[in-house]
Amino acid sequence: MADLFFYGTLCHVPLLERVLGRSGISLQPATLPDHAAFWAEGEGFPLLEPAPGQQATGLLARELSAEDEARLRFYEGGFAFGDKQVTVQTAQGPACANVFFPEPGRWATGAPWNLSDWQARWAAINMRAAEEIMAWYGRFTLDQIARNFTPIGIHATAWVSARSRPADPDRDVTRDVEVVDHRRAYLSFFGMEEIELRFRRHDGSMSAVLNRGMINVGEAVVVLPYDPVLDRVLLVEQFRAPVFMAGDRAPWVWEPVAGLVDPGETPETSAHREAEEEAGLNLRRLEPAGGVYSSTGSSNEFLNLFIGIADLSGQPNGGGGLDHEGEDIRSAILSYDALMDGVDRHLYRDMPLVTCALWLARHRERLRKQG
Fold first, then answer.
1. What is the value of pTM for the model shown?
2. Confidence of residue 84 (pLDDT cuts 50, 70, 90)
């Protein structure tokens, strides 16, 4: 049996219970002298650092089982945290416990950590991410789960965003959908989930049990840069592996700027970031052009569509994508008329590009007047 001291996200008891897969954990308040918790710069979790004269507050978990320890090391190992023994202070006196410390030099230290701030902004995302992480416990190694933390965070962000959208006023999913089984079948750049369920049919009866799959992509942004003064747009071209895998002999595809929404980002923040990374553009403003699922029968990918108002008077400097993401992107600037001629002649095969172009056609005159 082991005692562990938690100072950060695992002080949120529902998250701790999700990681351990059980409730009824023996917990008591405790402090670690000469240490303090700080935000990891740009991240949604804290770091424990030496801080003479200060004390890190947290919870001491008593008599955790070997299985509890294994689950905690699996979860924390993905964050590159290792454990060591310390002496903490409790109301009953000092106690020895293990604590998870960050890998030295892995992250920069930010502002002092505050649990309530984390709960307001990150708890829902971390709870969902923990569910997916722990679904791979016993199936993935520590290295495998660590390599997939980025897509898991993107999946969790998309799920929380989806839950915030309005419910169907004429349906109650808790009553009208019955989940028989749900399993995560695959995880890498994207994930694959399978489900067996019944749903209420239009005549009021329940359907037979159906087996369905979902490609777990996440939430994305699509930005068509447009210069209303010059009446020009910017497109990007890149190699698309799924198009190649489909057997298509033209897997280099012209598209708008696009990318996935990272944890902690709003779609608007992501749109500006992607415009800079892929096309070297600083957008003046964003015009929302809709929010849609790209393929409701196969994927959870939700697209936030934007027209990005920009100055396209010269070929942008920079852009081209990120090397560490394997991106190789070129851009082209063309007139609005050339864009719509390509749409009419079915030259473009990217659905978000065609959708954004048609939205632009409806709102072009207003945008040109606004400049």
1. 0.91
2. confident
E strand residue ranges, the chain:
2-6, 27-40, 46-64, 81-90, 93-102, 109-112, 177-187, 191-199, 210-216, 219-227, 232-239, 252-255, 257-260, 285-293, 302-309, 330-335
Q: Class assignment of domain 2-122?
A: alpha beta
Q: What distance in Å separates the CA atoms of residue 33 and residue 36, rounded to the nearest whole number?
A: 8
Q: For the chain, percent helix, then strand, then coil, each to nearest 5?
A: 30, 40, 30
Architecture of domain 219-370: Alpha-Beta Complex (3.90)
Residue 327 annotated as binding?
yes
Among 326, 354, 316, CA closest to 234: 316
Positions marked active-site: 325
Domain locations along the chain = 2-122, 154-216, 219-370
Q: Measuring CA to CA, which residue among 30, 42, 35 is closest to residue 4?
A: 30
The answer to whether 258 is a known ligand-binding residue is yes
Taking only the tens place, the pLDDT of each residue in 280-318 is 999 999 999 999 999 999 999 999 999 999 999 987 766
Phi, psi dihedrals of residue 100, rounded to the nearest 5°: -85, 120
Residue type, 177: V
**CB 214, CB 300: distance < 8 Å:** yes
Q: How far apart are the first and last CA of the chain?
A: 68
- Secondary structure class of 300 (helix, strand, coil): coil
